[in-house]
Amino acid sequence: MLEHVRRTHRHLLAEVSKQVERELKGLHRSVGKLESNLDGYVPTGDSQRWKRSIKACLCRCQETIANLERWVGGSEEYWLSQIQNHMNGPAKKWWEFKQGSVKNWVEFKKEFLQYSEGTLSREAIQRELDLPQKQGEPLDQFLWRKRDLYQTLHVDAEEEEIIHLRNHLVREVHRNHLCNDFSPVTIQTWFGEQERCSPLIPG
């Protein structure tokens, strides 16, 4: 009888071990899918499909964590802390920063979706920033628009960075008509000098 109980326990432990291994592999695959979604290029028209894919991955992760809790025990917070072992790249860095304030799966899903959508928004802003001057767009309007986009992406950007951006943009747009006889120190002097130089630069 005792030997039978031992065999039963060994069998149950082996089954639990296999189940946990399967669930951990499933968690790894689900998080990997999240990574590939974040790293991939997402055209604006496909954003809804992209969000659905993200949510499907999150649901699979949630189910896996629930199974791990059921088979192994431990708190939801503990299993959430294990997700970092299956993450790579920007998402891992994001989670290292956020995990101290995320205590349950509902919060994780909310925060991760916001992060994912923010990533998509940043990519769209970067694409807009990379576009050339629009046909007929006044130079000062073009420069201010690019400045706003740049500061949206880089909220801590120093003023000198913005000036370097301006100089680069003007060189790209009007290589042969750039007024070079000044060295601006602030954005205000930049545009003051820009007005002075505007007769030399075709709009």
From TrEMBL:
It comes from the Eukaryota. This is Uncharacterized protein. Residues 9-79 form the Activity-regulated cytoskeleton-associated protein N-terminal domain. It comes from Balaenoptera physalus. GO terms for molecular function: mRNA binding. GO terms for cellular component: actin cytoskeleton; cytoplasm; plasma membrane. Residues 119-174 form the Activity-regulated cytoskeleton-associated protein C-terminal domain. One of its GO terms (biological process) is cytoskeleton organization.
